[in-house]
């Protein structure tokens, strides 16, 4: 009986993952189209604006972008962990419940309607994505409830159906959009980590960290919920309440991530699965370690995306999808029998 | 002994055309071993789910330790009643020890880490069920019998005065069936636990339980001691199967007679 989690072992694993994230962020901040010197960066900004370009690139361009990538990765990975637990399905991730198509519909609506207001200092596209993602979550929950309560199957089916419907609406809208808007919209739909200002990053970080902390407080109950609603209730956990809280928090942090970066897929699938292989399925450690390593994963993917065809850049969603697609297929073949027999 | 489960005029249906239980009333004292038996669809599992608070009665009432079951919070009820449902494999690869440790959920504090007392309860439950040797193995890597032992260990680690079990031996071989019923009887005798077990096996019920609730498909029921309730006539009425009975020691055993069994052509030796 050696594998029961202790606070000490949890802290050790969190510190290790945090150290890995800091190293990844530091190394990736030095990599880019423009080579920069670390000594020049540490020399400071200089007396005049633009005097030390290495410093400016490092501090004003790369660091905000890397922080943004880390926030998006942490949010999507943590959201994946929570959704997989409440749906008892290792294939579930933020996108399977229709959040992606909801956000995409928001972007297309903004592009077509010429909305000019912004959210968190971001573009109208990001703001609309956020609103539509939240709306989609509510719609999935409401439809799933109508279809048969908040059961695993009804929520998944509701997500699939709403995804299909929104995708059809998006295709209709794409045929109406002008070519200038089309390219930026498509890039956004494929997931792109751009530069954001520090107030935007700070506000996003507060939202995402608070959401992950909220999920952590129910992480032991997620362990129990992974055995089903009846089992959870017999063990003193109100399954409906925990499902609702987990679903709301996971959707919230996903929506913040989507609002920041567009549709970065597969992070919520690849990262929790990999972390489960390393540390095991206990959600008390799976959640924080997945968030930290998810952050590192998206930072690495974004670094590849902005350097692999330099000076041009790929959307980071392309890189995560290239990695995530095969992982999804492996998981599908491994878990389909188990998931199919779940009560 | 005080009354620990009291059911009065209980009714439940899954819809207007699917009345499962009608005006069911019975009570058992603390420390009783009750078996619930009956044909498929008679409402055995439904009754277990009502007794565990998972379903709400359509009519009538259930009292646990003289308080209505709906007056208990989910957490408080989990400190009174542990439930073992038919075994299944969870999709995530929790180890056997992790599964047993989940029994401590109702007792965990805000940080949700097991204390030394929780670890002791888990170790004892593993010891009692003779499962310590595979405690570190993933649940999915164990046999059906071993998994069921782990779920029983989890129920024991929950340290509740009552255990509800839904066909705990349905997929197990003879050795594991007897092993699990021996363990339950031991819990009843040594720990004074109240055991309520749904079973299809009349002979296991006859051997191990003090009381039996025989549910019929038409909603009627028989409740009493195993000696008074289990008769060949009543079994034929409830299950629609003729049986032969034989008294061995203090237990009466029942042998079903099919139309084409050897026993129909050559009389049994009892």
Could you walk me through the main structural features you see in this protein, from its secondary elements to its overall organization?
The complex is a heterodimer of chains A (343) and B (270). Chain A has 343 residues and is mainly alpha-helical. Chain A has one domain: ABC transporter involved in vitamin B12 uptake, BtuC. Helices cover 75% and strands 0% of the residues of chain A. Chain A has helices at residues 7-30, 38-42, 53-87, 99-113, 124-148, 152-174, 179-189, 198-217, 219-225, 229-234, 239-261, 267-279, 283-307, 316-340. The longest helix of chain A is centred in the first third of the chain and has 35 residues, at 53-87. Chain A is globular. Chain A starts with 6 loop residues before the first helix and ends with a helix. By secondary structure, chain B is α/β, with parallel strands linked by helices. In chain B, 32% of the residues lie in helices and 26% in strands. Chain B has a six-stranded mixed sheet with strand order 6-7-8-3-9-10, with helices on both faces. In chain B, a hairpin with a 2-residue loop joins strand 11 (243-248) and strand 12 (251-256). In chain B, helix 4 (116-128) packs across helix 5 (144-157). The longest helix of chain B is centred in the C-terminal third of the chain and has 18 residues, at 174-191. Chain B starts with a strand and ends in a 5-residue tail after the last helix. The mean pLDDT of chain B is 90.
Summarize the topology.
The complex is a heterodimer of chains A (343) and B (270).
Chain A: H1 7-30, H2 38-42, H3 53-87, H4 99-113, H5 124-148, H6 152-174, H7 179-189, H8 198-217, H9 219-225, H10 229-234, H11 239-261, H12 267-279, H13 283-307, H14 316-340
Helix pairs in contact in A: 1-3, 1-13, 3-8, 3-11, 3-12, 3-13, 4-5, 4-6, 4-7, 5-6, 5-11, 8-11, 9-13, 12-13, 13-14
Chain B: E1 3-13, E2 19-29, E3 33-37, H1 44-51, E4 59-64, E5 67-68, H2 74-78, E6 81-84, H3 96-101, H4 116-128, H5 144-157, E7 162-166, H6 174-191, E8 194-198, H7 202-208, E9 211-215, E10 221-225, H8 226-229, H9 232-239, E11 243-248, E12 251-256, H10 262-265
Parallel strand pairs in B: 3-8, 3-9, 6-7, 7-8
Antiparallel strand pairs in B: 1-2, 1-4, 4-5, 9-10, 11-12
Helix pairs in contact in B: 4-5
